[in-house]
Amino acid sequence: MLEKPFDLPIAFHLAATFLLAGTGALEGVRKRYDVVGITVLALFTGLGGALARDAILGSGLSPVLKDERYLAAVLAGAIAGTFFGRRLHRLRLLILLADAAALGIYGVVGTQKGLVASVPVLTAILLGVVNAVGGGVLRDVLAREEPLIFKPGQFYALAALFGCVVFAALAHGLHLHANVAAVTAIAVAFGARLLSLRLRWTTAVLENGDIGP
Question: pTM score > 0.85 for this model?
Answer without folding.
Answer: no
